[in-house]
């Protein structure tokens, strides 16, 4: 599973793949695609996966509000307790809050994450979501799809397809974390 | 930050950061216990053994519920129904349990230091659920959680712990943790129930209850262990109640927003008046509810691979 917030100090060989403008345009497009696919905001809700996905979900909520004039319900999901590697770890990761303050029944819930990689985080997120209620449908929006799936999972909305090697590290840096908006690839 | 400990035996060696981590983790589990489906898969495939050599309903049930809500398998082991009556030692009992691949052993024992002994002898994680008059760390942690839940800051908080401090593991764990977090701890009780040297732990001793309660933010009552009557600790229950029983009148000596706590089981009309136990300032049932979330947090943090 990726831990995009746990980033090392930036190095010279980091390669910029999306700048602030690219991220903004990708999010605007995704907002339009979500509305187009779901024919508006009826029954629509967004849930961000901690931590990067939460920020992106908030941005999408704002964009959708800008387009349709309606603020769709949104929530935040911490997937830690649903990880498949808990039994293998020596020290357990820090838990953060989950908050889905709306009834998911009949809703189209769009999960939002920053990077789609092995697909394990999304599996955990779907299980976590199902324990909170019964969404009518779950869709997936990601800013970056970097490939290397280990589970049969596919995103409905993708900001950018990014061919990477397994060893590379993709980092989504966002203003909400005190960074300049950008996506970089670094060799790890 | 993570809890890099095999066992939770005492609050004395824990850092402020570690205590804070446990309380914050408990906060996430509080959300889980408020869901319709109060269960998460975090400890799937793990085994938690409740090894209780002393009768306890509250603590054992609380640990059992916490482990089950984390999807662990739970076994309750009580000595009357076991080979302990046939003369097996604590360590041998525990090793047998460990041989059945227990990941976490929760131990309640009448001897101080029993959890420590056990922890040294087994590879499983050991959680002290009360050892003699020594410590009861999870009770103190749930007390801290309940105080924090009320929006109180530990720095400069005035806490009075009232009753049989000598024989209270709850008092000792709370003194360790509260002083560490910057609270001012007062211990209130008759001299026969005040352990020698308690002020060395950073607590201030009061023999007069009214004086001890003046201006405090938290009143923590201890259970009067009625079975100790006749050991010359107090002449009569009536006299004890008159001198150290918490009445509504005495609560008024404390800060107007003060809360009343009790680890249970309460002796109504002895150490606490019924109207106080049921009053708005009483958080006694919150303590019980929070106990499950706090223990889920502790089990989760202790469940790292060995």
Poorly predicted residue ranges of chain B = none
Strand fraction of chain B = 5-15%
Radius of gyration of chain B: 19 Å
Shape of chain A: globular
Mean pLDDT of chain B: 93
**Helix percentage of chain A:** 25-40%
Helices and strands of chain A: which structural class? alpha/beta
Trace the largest sheet of chain B across and list its strands: 7-6-5-8-9
Strand order of the largest sheet of chain A: 3-2-4-5-6
Distance between the termini of chain B: 18 Å
Biggest interface, chains and residues, is: A-B, 22 and 29 residues
Percentage of residues in DSSP E strands of chain A:
25-35%
Major beta sheet summary of chain B: 5 strands, parallel
Along the chain, the helix and strand elements of chain B come as: HEHEHEHEHEHEEHEHHEHH
- Write down how many β-strands of chain B occur, each being a DSSP E stretch of 2 or more residues: 9
- List the quaternary state of the chains: heterodimer
Apparent shape of chain B = globular
Mean pLDDT of chain A: 92
Largest sheet features of chain A: 5 strands, parallel
Number of helices of chain A: 3
Describe this structure in words.
The complex is a heterodimer of chains A (188) and B (306). Chain A is 26% helix and 26% strand. Chain A contains 3 helices and 8 strands, in the order βαβαββαββββ. In chain A, helix 1 (20-37) packs across helix 2. The longest helix of chain A has 18 residues, at 20-37. By secondary structure, chain B is of the alpha/beta class. Chain B is built from 11 helices and 9 strands. A 5-stranded parallel sheet of chain B has the order 7-6-5-8-9. Chain B has a 4-stranded parallel sheet with strand order 2-1-3-4, with helices on both faces. Chain B is globular. The two termini of chain B are 18 Å apart. The chains are: A alpha/beta (188), B alpha/beta (306). The A-B interface holds A 78, 80-82, 86-99, 127, 131-133 and B 1-4, 21, 24-25, 27-29, 31-32, 35-37, 39-46, 297, 300-301, 303-305.
């Amino acid at each position: 599973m990726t831990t995009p917030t746990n980033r090392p100090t930036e190095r010279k060989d980091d390669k910029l793949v999306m700048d602030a403008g690219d991220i903004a345009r990708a999010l605007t497009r995704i907002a339009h695609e979500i509305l187009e696919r779901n024919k508006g905001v009826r029954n629509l809700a967004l849930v961000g996966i901690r931590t990067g996905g939460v920020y992106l979900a908030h941005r999408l909520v704002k964009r959708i509000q800008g387009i349709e004039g309606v603020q769709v319900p949104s929530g935040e999901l911490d997937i830690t307790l649903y990880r498949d590697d808990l039994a293998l770890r020596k020290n357990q990761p820090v838990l953060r809050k989950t908050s889905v303050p709306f009834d998911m029944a009949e809703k189209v819930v769009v999960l939002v994450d920053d990077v789609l990689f092995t697909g394990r985080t999304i599996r955990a997120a779907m299980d976590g979501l199902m324990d909170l209620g019964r969404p009518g449908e779950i869709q997936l929006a990601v800013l970056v799809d970097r490939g290397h799936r280990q589970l049969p999972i596919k995103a409905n909305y993708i900001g950018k397809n990014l061919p990477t090697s397994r060893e590379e590290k993709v980092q989504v840096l966002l203003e909400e974390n005190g960074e300049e908006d950008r996506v970089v690839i670094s060799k790890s | 930050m993570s809890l890099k400990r095999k066992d939770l035996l005492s609050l004395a060696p824990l850092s402020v950061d570690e205590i804070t981590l446990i309380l914050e983790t408990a906060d996430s589990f509080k959300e889980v216990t408020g869901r319709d489906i109060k269960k998460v898969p975090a400890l799937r495939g793990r085994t938690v053994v409740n090894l209780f050599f002393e009768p306890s309903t509250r603590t054992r049930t609380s640990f059992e519920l916490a482990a089950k809500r984390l999807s662990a398998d739970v076994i309750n082991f009580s000595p009357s129904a076991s080979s302990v009556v046939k003369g097996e030692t604590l360590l041998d009992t525990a090793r047998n349990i460990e041989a059945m691949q227990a990941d976490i052993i929760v131990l309640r024992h009448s001897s101080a230091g029993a959890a420590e002994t056990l922890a040294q002898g087994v590879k499983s994680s050991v959680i002290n659920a009360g050892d003699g008059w020594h410590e009861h760390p999870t009770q103190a942690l749930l007390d801290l959680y309940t105080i924090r839940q009320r929006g109180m800051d530990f720095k400069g908080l005035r806490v009075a712990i009232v009753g049989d401090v000598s024989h209270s593991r709850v008092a000792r764990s709370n003194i360790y943790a509260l002083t560490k977090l910057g609270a001012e701890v007062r211990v209130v009780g008759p001299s026969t129930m005040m352990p020698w040297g308690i002020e060395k732990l950073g607590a201030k001793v009061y023999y007069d209850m009214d004086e001890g309660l003046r201006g405090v933010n938290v009143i923590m009552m201890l259970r009067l262990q009625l079975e100790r009557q006749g050991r010359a600790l107090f002449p009569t229950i009536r006299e004890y109640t008159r001198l150290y029983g918490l009445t509504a009148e005495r609560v008024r000596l404390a800060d107007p927003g003060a809360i009343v706590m009790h680890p249970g089981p309460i002796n109504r009309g002895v150490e606490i008046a019924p109207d106080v136990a049921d009053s708005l300032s009483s958080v006694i049932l919150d303590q019980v509810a929070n106990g499950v979330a706090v223990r889920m947090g502790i089990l989760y943090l202790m469940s790292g691979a060995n």
